[in-house]
Structure formats: C-alpha cells, structure tokens
From TrEMBL:
The keyword Oxidoreductase does not apply. The keyword Transferase does not apply. This is FAD-dependent oxidoreductase. It comes from Streptomyces rimosus subsp. rimosus (strain ATCC 10970 / DSM 40260 / JCM 4667 / NRRL 2234). SUPFAM superfamilies: FAD/NAD(P)-binding domain (SSF51905), ISP domain (SSF50022).
Length: 514
C-alpha cells in the first residue's frame, strides 16, 4: 500500500494485478533432447499466440520459456487491446503512404477481433470488455496534431473521430476516439490459451532458458541445461531477441514504465482507455474489480533501464493519480518494459536476410498485446506458406526504411556509446563497499575490477561483475525494484546476478569483495 503522498510502505510488493489474481504455472523444464516441427522461444503473448496458431494449423510445437509463461512483460502490461497506438497513423501515412497506414490498421484491428473470437471459442472468463480508446492532449497547441491523426486513422479504415469531450475528470483540448476497442485480463486469457494448446498436442517447458541457436536443416536450440530441441523452424519471441546474429539490438530502444492501480467506485470510471504523451506519458483505464468498484490502472513515467530508480517515478505517478482521482489508495504497483523500433513499426518475420527457417517478433513499442496476436498470425502464415497481405510491412529485413530511420538509429547508437564509454570513465560509483547503505547497491572498484555490490537490509553484501553479459555495458542498481539494469540494451539481473530479463542469457559472474 502507499500513503497519499506517494511514498512506499515498508511491506510494499511489486506484483502486477494480473499475476496476483491468477494461479501459478508449473510446466516441467526440458530434461532431455526433443523434436518438433517448430520451436517457439518465449512464453508471452507473442510466443503463445504463435504456438497456438501453429498447432491449430497441424504443426508439432514446443514452447521454451526461461521463467513462467505469461509472467514477464505480458504479465505486467496495462492490458489494452487497441489499434489506436498513440500517434502513429499520420506518421505512417507520411512515411509509408496511405497503403502502409491501412495495412497497419487492418492487422492491429484484426488482432483485437482475434482475441475476442478466441476468448469466445475457449469460453474463458477474462474480463473482456469492448469500448472506445482515446489519445488526448490538454495543451491546445497539440490539438492540430490530433486532428491530423484522427483523419489519418479514419483514412486507414478505423472508426476514428476527433472529439473534445471525454470521460476523464479534467478537460482536454482534443482527442482521437476510436470505437470497438477492447481490454481484458491477459493472464487469464493466456493460461486458457496455453491449456488449449496442450490439449491439441503442444508442449510447454518452463524454467528452460534457450542459450544457443544453430540454423540449418533442421535447426537446433540448445538450453541452459544442455538439452536440445531439433525442429524445422524456430521462432524467437523473447520480447528482446536473445540472439544477436541479426544485430536487431541496433534497431531497438528499451524503456521502462511504472504502473499504479487503485479501486474506485464504478461511477468514477472514465469510460474508455486513454493515453497521452504529455506529462511524461499517462495511460488510464479501469478493469472489473469487485461489487460496485473498478480497478483504476494508471501508467506513465517512462525511463531507460539503468538510468533512474523507479521509486521517484512511482511517487510522481501516484501523486498524479491522487490529484485527478482524489481519495484513491494504491492496491497494486508494478513496472513493465517495452522496446521501440527505430522506425516505429514492429519487427516480425524472418530473423535476418539469410534466414530460411528462423523468425523473430520484437519491437512492439508498448503495444505488445495486439502486436503479439498479430505476430502469431503473421508468423504462422509465413511458416505454413500463407502469409497475410500485411506481412511485408513488418518484415525485419526491410531496407527501404533504412534512410528514414537513420536519425532515430544514430541517436540510439550514440546513447549506447555514451553509456558504454562514459560509464567507464567514472573511476567508481562508490569509494568502498562500506559506503553502501542497507537495501541499496553501487558499483565499486575492488582489486582493479568493477563489481556490482548489493547490501541487503540485514547488512549482508553480495557482489557480482558489473559488466552486462550481453555486450559488456556497466549495469546500474534500481533500488526500488532490487535489480541491476543495463542502460544499453535493457538486460536486468537480480542482486545475485541471475538473469531477470534479456537480451542477456548468462548471469553476472559472482565476485568476492570481503
């Protein structure tokens, strides 16, 4: 719980509402070599949607998940199913033409409808609700941009309009409104999808981290335990690709956002899904909660992993919620992570130009629910020989956008270089281990080597290498979430060095500092 000033209580937990309100899973780890038609790496919505579509198409499919299915990025989403992705259609209309914008709208809205269809098919109670989505601004200077976005979205085929009235408890200068969008409980949906996948012959292995990929005929995926899965095709759906051969890390920029959720009377429901890029980004929706109440879910305060502590971000977001929804008390809080592609559109398709049987899905830019479902249909079409008409828009091999994405690409690489070199120019982040307060962590030079040292609340220290095992950038400590984070590509590690989030697949090496 939190006090009204946004400060965290001593027993604060950071589990998402979706994970807290669903049972855990216990699919067995991969214990011995296996064979399949397709190996899917990653058990989030992109991986599970792809696996389910493939098994329905008659393929033998094995899913490998490093931790627990639907418990990573997908388990920490705000759970909007929408084809209105902030401000994208006017940009697509300018950069990819009217046809590109139309293809994007078609694929994303089809994903919304696909979830509705599957939820009905499986008979799963996942709190699915239909309603409008809004992108709004409060500053009158931004209203013209929203008018252009509404026009572009309407031209792309969406039921879009420009409005000045919303259900928010404050006035807006304008908003794009798109009808027939959806919101749901993503983990309930995906747990049902996983069980249906298994009933059709699919296999899921949790606590099975993929560490190697051999492309060939057939392909082989090796795992942390040494066991291997051999298959004709492989799909890498790990949110951030865990294999670097395609150099996709040069085209992806990671970011984290914090989420706070509080019960409110049903009469205070703003009646839709809202988002704005103002004020450090704000996203608002509600979900069914209990009799007479809804759960208000507010997201925002974007930051790059390893560059800020989440505590201040939670405080700012909580204060914003209290200001606009007074009397609320935070019941859940968590953080999520997304990857933006440098040219706006997700990367879904063949892994690299020479790929014949390996595929990837990444770069969803905060819209991974509709994007993940669209990826499932797209990748299944590519593997079965019947790709959808919008497959080319998402092709990771697209070269025609290279010039167009150059400014964003160069900016991202400059920022990575700044961290890779600049962080090393600092002789130390703390002069000694003794300086590190309980509950915090810092980089300390010990016997000529930089060590990432964490001191727990009882004073015990734990030290690991400060170099991220992905590409060697120095990590930084997020004291609120108790994690070492890489500012270059977003890998995250527990205080003991174990991998929490890729692209890293190897833990930080333990160090002795006493």
């Amino acid at each position: 719980m939190t006090d009204n000033d946004g400060a965290s209580g001593p027993d604060e937990s950071y589990e998402s509402y979706w994970i807290a309100t669903t049972p855990g899973t216990s699919y067995p780890p991969l214990a011995e070599d296996a064979e399949a038609d397709v190996t899917v790496i990653g058990g989030g919505i992109a991986g599970l949607s792809t696996a389910w579509e493939l098994v329905r198409a008659g393929r033998r499919v094995v899913v490998l998940e490093a931790d627990r299915i639907a418990a990573g990025v997908t388990g920490c989403t705000t759970a909007k199913l929408s084809s209105l992705h902030t401000l994208i259609y006017d940009r697509l209309r300018r950069t990819r033409g009217a046809e590109g914008a139309r293809r994007y709208a078609e694929s994303q809205q089809a994903a919304v409808e696909r979830v509705v269809e599957i939820a009905d098919l499986l008979g799963v109670d996942c709190d699915l609700e239909r309603g409008p989505a809004f992108t709004y601004v409060r500053d009158p200077a931004g209203a013209g941009q929203l008018r252009a976005e509404a026009e572009a979205a309407r031209e792309a085929g969406l039921p879009a309009s420009f409005v000045t009235a919303t259900g928010l408890p404050f006035p807006v200068a304008g908003a794009v409104r798109v009808e027939e969008q959806a919101q749901f409980h993503p983990r309930r949906y995906l747990l049902a999808l996983a069980e249906d996948f298994r009933s059709r012959g699919g296999v899921i292995h949790e606590r099975t981290r993929a560490t190697g990929l051999h492309e060939g005929s057939p392909c082989r995926v090796t795992t942390e335990s040494g066991a291997t899965v051999t298959s004709r095709d492989v799909v890498v759906a790990t949110h951030y690709p865990v294999f670097d051969r395609a150099l996709l890390f040069t085209r992806l920029s990671p970011r984290r956002e914090v989420v706070v959720a509080a019960p409110v009377d049903a009469g205070r429901d703003p009646g839709g899904m809202y988002i704005t890029e103002e004020e450090g980004k704000r996203s608002v929706r509600t979900a069914p909660y209990d009799d007479g109440r809804r759960l208000l879910i507010v997201t925002g305060e974007t930051f790059k992993p390893g560059t800020a502590d989440a505590g201040e971000k939670f405080a700012r977001l909580t204060a914003w919620m209290h200001r606009h929804f007074p009397g609320t008390e935070v019941a859940y809080r968590w953080a999520t992570q997304d990857n933006d592609s440098t040219d706006t559109v997700p990367l879904i398709g063949p892994f690299h130009p020479a790929a014949r049987h390996t595929y990837v899905a990444t770069g969803f830019g905060g819209w991974g629910l509709s994007g993940g479902v669209a990826a499932g249909r797209l990748l299944t079409g590519l593997i079965t020989g019947d790709p959808p008409p919008w497959a080319g828009l998402y092709d990771p091999r697209r070269l025609w956008s290279a010039v167009r994405e150059a400014p964003a690409f160069l900016k991202h690489q400059a920022e990575v270089g700044r961290h890779f070199i600049g962080d090393r120019l600092r002789t130390t982040h703390a002069d000694s281990v003794a300086e590190i307060a309980p509950g915090s962590g810092a980089i300390v030079r010990v016997r000529g080597r930089r060590c990432a040292v964490h001191r727990d609340e009882d004073g015990t220290t734990l030290a690991v290498s400060a170099r991220c095992t992905h590409l060697g950038c120095l990590v930084a400590f997020n004291a609120t979430e108790k994690a070492w984070e890489c500012p270059c590509h977003g890998s995250r590690f527990a205080p003991d060095g174990s991998v929490l989030q890729g692209p890293a697949t190897e833990p930080l090496e333990r160090r002795e500092v006493e």
